[in-house]
Amino acid sequence: MAEVVNVLVAFAVIVFLFRWVTSTGKDTPAEQSAINALGFRPKNVTPEMVDTVHNMFPDIPRDNIRYELLKTGSVEQATNKILERGFLDAPPAAYYTLYPRTNQAPPTPATAAAPVPKPLEKPKENLISKYKLETRLDDPSIPSAQEIEQGGKAVWEDTPEKREASLRERKAQMILAARRYVGLIVTRTPSLLLFTDKRWCIGGCKRSRKLG
User: Fold this and answer.
1) C-alpha to C-alpha distance for 189 and 176, rounded to whole angstroms
2) What whole-number distance in Å separates Cα of residue 98 and Cα of residue 30?
3) 108 located within any domain
4) Residues 138 and 187 placed together within one structural domain of the fold
5) How far is CA 132 from its chain centroid?
6) What per-residue string of b and e applies to 123-151 under the rule 16 or more CB within 10 Å gives b?
7) Locate the CUE domain: which residues (predicted)?
8) What total number of domains does the chain contain?
9) Are both 6 and 88 inside the same structural domain?
10) DSSP state of 27
11) What is d(CA 200, CA 78) in angstroms, rounded to the nearest whole number?
12) Alpha carbons 85 and 88: distance in angstroms, whole number
């Protein structure tokens, strides 16, 4: 009976020694150095775990959060500890030999709003562009304003379509004749009409330019 007990005790000791040897043999030199410096085996901590706690408690330094997570490996335990105590213990000096000190990110300055580009001013529409008469400006068949007046009233057409077309053509002729008359005056007396400060004036005006 005593021999059986001795065998069981010897077997238990062998198993314990085997597990101890294999467990210590798995540590790399860096891991063993961390264990010796911190006094405990650090848990695996990801940046996401630190960010999760820091986003909930931005007043807690990130190094304090990482140190707590290295001990527990649990975001839940770290948050519960903050809720209970209001703070987390600062890491010892040996911690900073293994993990460089984390600089708190400065607040991002608010970017100035980009200036809104002013919309391009729409060119003012004149009668020539309104009635699409640009292609007829140099048409020699257009009568003068005097000839249009002497021609009397337009002929009364027999259908509404023809009457509308006749009225439209008469209006176009009057616009083109007026444009030609103004151009003739400006050509003969270029100093008569001047444009300045968005006003028409007769004679010379300061800071004025000739009508182009």
Assistant:
1) 20
2) 9
3) no
4) yes
5) 42
6) eeeeeeeeeebeebeeeeebeeeeebeee
7) 45-87
8) 2
9) yes
10) -
11) 80
12) 8
Distance CA 19, CA 16 (A): 5
Question: If you search the block for the tokens 């007026």, which residue do you land on?
Answer: 178
Whether 116 is in a domain gets the answer no
DSSP 162: H
Domain span at residue 84? Answer: 2-98
Within 13 Å of residue 37, how many CA atoms lie on the same side as its CB? 18
Q: How many residues does the chain have?
A: 212
The CA distance from 65 to 50, in Å, is: 6
